[in-house]
Amino acid sequence: MSDWKSICALEDIPRLGSRVVEAAAGPIALFRTADDRVFALDDRCPHKGGPLSQGIVAGDRVTCPLHGWLIGLEDGSAVAPDVGCVKRHEARVEAGRVLLRIS
After folding, report:
1. In angstroms, rounded to a whole number, what is the distance separating the alpha carbons of residues 84 and 95?
2. What is the dihedral angle through the alpha carbons of 79, 18, 100, 39, rounded to the nearest 10 degrees?
3. What is the CATH number of the domain that holds 82?
4. CA 80 → CA 5, 70, 72, 73, 83, distances in Å?
5. Domain count, the chain
6. What is the pLDDT of residue 1?
7. pTM of this prediction?
8. pLDDT beyond 70 at 2
């Protein structure tokens, strides 16, 4: 049995935007880049807990809407000089569908 869950169509996530998925451990933000890559992070900035899903996506980073921290979408790490990390989840696109493995 696969632990990958089909979440939505790729088109359901705006380019350079996000969509929030509710999970048992809290909300997860799915981000879509300009080149249609999809990343999944807990929807909580490591600084003050701001909702990353409301941030601006540029390249492979999202800017926290509260205090402007940059968070790498690939690994969930804050970009220097800031320090911190948000939990990352595996996501992939298959046949136009976004699949998520909640870790």
Report:
1. 34
2. -30
3. 2.102.10.10
4. 33, 8, 11, 14, 6
5. 1
6. 39
7. 0.93
8. no
102 pLDDT tier (thresholds 50, 70, 90): confident
State which amino acid sits at residue 61: R
- What do you get for the CA distance between the two ends of the chain, in Å? 16
3-class DSSP string for the chain: CCCCEEEEEHHHCCCCEEEEECCCCCCEEEEECCCCCEEEEECCCCCCCCCHHHCEEECCEEECCCCCCEEECCCCEECCCCCCECCEEEEEEECCEEEEECC
Report the amino acid identity of residue 40. A
> Mind listing the pLDDT tens digit for each residue in 47-87?
999 999 999 999 999 999 999 999 999 999 999 999 999 99
Domain hosting 56: range is: 5-101
Q: Which residues contact residue 90 at a Cβ distance below 8 angstroms, ignoring those fewer than 6 apart?
A: 40, 100, 101, 103
Q: Which two tokens stand for residue 70?
A: 């940059």
